[in-house]
Design goal:
Blueprint lengths: L8 E8 L9 E9 L5 E7 L8 H7 L3 H4 L5 H12 L3 E4 L2 H15 L11 E3 H8 L4 H9 L9 H18 L7 H7 L13 E3 L5 E3 L9 H7 L2 H8 L4 H21 L1
Parallel strand pairs: 1-4, 4-5
Antiparallel strand pairs: 1-2, 2-3, 6-7
Helix pairs in contact: 6-7
């Protein structure tokens, strides 16, 4: 089976220094780009994160400080990666919650604009959890009857993720073979305005917070009641993409107030 695509889709996986989107860095990135005609191209890079890799993290993916000491930094790779994924939808395993937000953070950190405005995101883990409730290793065995012997290698995980999605499409009649459907189906917890899940859309299409004392409160109501909260967000330890969403909202409100005054 081939994916039915309106534009190219990039399957990708990151190995990182840790799991904190706002703080951690990429140490390996693997990309599998599937074109609309079914042709594929792939690329994998080791990345010098410019910060120490904790020993407990190295124990998981096998990438040490020494291994990446002479590898390019993300800043040196960013333009090439940005061009490779330009005008592509994105897909991965747990990518909505982790890989896409962290990749966005890396781009924004080196002043390369990145957003999901014209992209769809397909999270194969969310499809899997809705259908079977298991891990990537189990998913690969369950759907493809293969053993993922090189788990936590970005390249192996990326290829396995692509194969799992194809097998999911074969297995479940209710899954439609188009990225629009798969993107919507693989959303969990509603549609998010940012990519780390701090700001989401409610049923009326309003941006609301998904955490803290203002959970489920619209940004507009928060602005009317406590505009200083937006300054706190900008100075706190939130991902840059989340801060940009909040800043753009404030800019929009101020512009509306200027024209309505």
């Amino acid at each position: 089976m081939n994916l039915k695509l309106e534009k190219p889709i990039v399957f990708f996986d990151l190995e990182t220094t840790g799991v904190q989107v706002a703080k951690d860095r990429i140490v390996e990135i693997s990309i599998l780009k599937v074109l609309t005609n079914g042709n594929k191209e792939s690329k994998t890079w080791l990345v010098n994160p410019t910060i120490p890799i904790p020993e407990e993290t190295t124990a998981i993916h096998g990438i040490s400080d020494e291994k990446v000491a002479n590898e390019p930094t993300f800043a040196q790779l960013a333009t090439e990666i940005s061009e490779l994924i330009h005008n592509c939808d994105l897909a991965g395993y747990n990518s909505n919650k982790f890989d896409i937000p962290l990749l966005a953070e890396e781009f924004l950190r080196v002043d390369i604009d990145f957003n999901m405005d014209n992209r769809k995101a397909v999270d194969i883990q969310n499809i899997f959890h809705k259908m079977e409730q298991r891990t990537l290793i189990a998913a690969y065995k369950f759907y493809c009857d293969k053993d993922l012997t090189n788990a936590h290698s970005a390249e192996a995980d990326t290829t396995a993720t692509y194969e799992v999605l194809l097998s999911q499409l074969d297995k479940y009649d209710e899954l439609e073979n188009n990225v629009n459907f798969l993107s919507e189906f693989s959303q969990r917890g509603g549609k998010f305005a940012d990519m780390a899940g701090f700001v989401r859309y409610n049923e009326d299409g309003e941006e609301v917070l998904s955490f803290g004392k203002y959970r489920d409160v619209s940004l507009k109501q928060i602005w009317n009641e406590n505009p200083g909260y937006f300054s706190w967000i900008q100075n706190a330890d939130f991902p840059l993409y989340t801060k940009n969403v909040m800043k753009n909202f404030v800019d929009k409100i101020r512009l509306e107030n200027k024209f309505n005054s």
